[in-house]
Amino acid sequence: MATEVKERDYYFDNARFILIFLVVFGHFISPIKDQNDWLYTVYNFIYTFHMPAFILISGFFTKGVLKDGYLSKIFRKVLVPYIVFQLIYSFYYYDLYDKSEIKLNFFDPHWAMWFLLSLVFWNILLKVFVKIKYPLILAIGIGVAVGYITDIGTYLSLLRTFVFFPVFLLGHYLTKRDFKQILKPSVRIGSSVFLVLMFLAYHFLIPDHAKDWLLSSSSYAEILGHNEWYGGVIRLGLYAVMFLATFSFLAIIPKRKFFFTEFGERTLYIYLLHGFVLKYLFTTDLFSSIEKNNYYVMLLVLAVIITMFLASKPVIALAQPLIELRWTKLNRMLRKDE
């Protein structure tokens, strides 16, 4: 029994770390993806499953949603860091981009901050949906219907909240047995084949503007130019591909412990902090130099370095007071230095 628990923990930590690396890597690709077809293929490929897989895993760990104090815990661990970092990023952008004024807006998330705000809403919605019939069908119906609303935009991250909620909800209903099923050798082989075929399809068959559907931050009218009826059909098709890609990715995640496994517990830190590094780098000549000299492999190398650095113990200790509102790790580090 103890061995099974260890493997399960290693599995999810491995998945989290690989996913947060893909988040950072995807953001590194973003500024120059238009300049190289294969780079755009990698970008679309990653965005098909990396956030859905993160969201699915987040939903899986919500089994205590009906317990007393559940939402209070979510507000403390997710909403408070959102408010803190939304504020910090507002000042950071003011200084970085030499803006004339500081705009404090907690209702329109900065860049990657949308995930935290949506995570709060997903947990609130979950408390309602677990009490009704056919919750997943209803959630998918809402996810499709919301795309027809033209002015929802990024306000409170509502569009992404409703579009990705079915993934979060499905994660809640998954069991340990379900994950054991997808880790069978036959499923792993089939999943690997599917991912390879999907990658090739993105390069040779699917147009680049598929990214607008994958990001799920625009209405059908914004993507198609008009509010076409078939926007919902495309969304349904995207759900099918998204679920297949997500489970295929999760099927190839290793179960044993690696040198990076422990970093899987620190994904929130990496997620919140990598924006400071990347937004600064976006203001430099780094990406134009990479593009000019075709040093695209540097994007991968830099993503690995930044991810590992932000997962390091000194960074975690320094950032803990802002993210967890605790000084435990920093005090421990300071005591070691005395």
Automatic annotation (TrEMBL):
Its main location: membrane. It holds the Pfam family Acyl_transf_3. GO terms for molecular function: acyltransferase activity. Keywords: Acyltransferase, Membrane, Transferase, Transmembrane, Transmembrane helix. It is found in: Membrane. The chain crosses the membrane at residues 12-30, 42-62, 74-94, 106-125, 132-149, 155-175, 187-206, 236-254, 266-283, 295-323. Coiled coil: none annotated. Residues 10-310 form the Acyltransferase domain. Belongs to the acyltransferase 3 family. This is Acyltransferase family protein. It comes from Fictibacillus terranigra. The lineage of its organism: Bacteria, Bacillati, Bacillota, Bacilli, Bacillales.
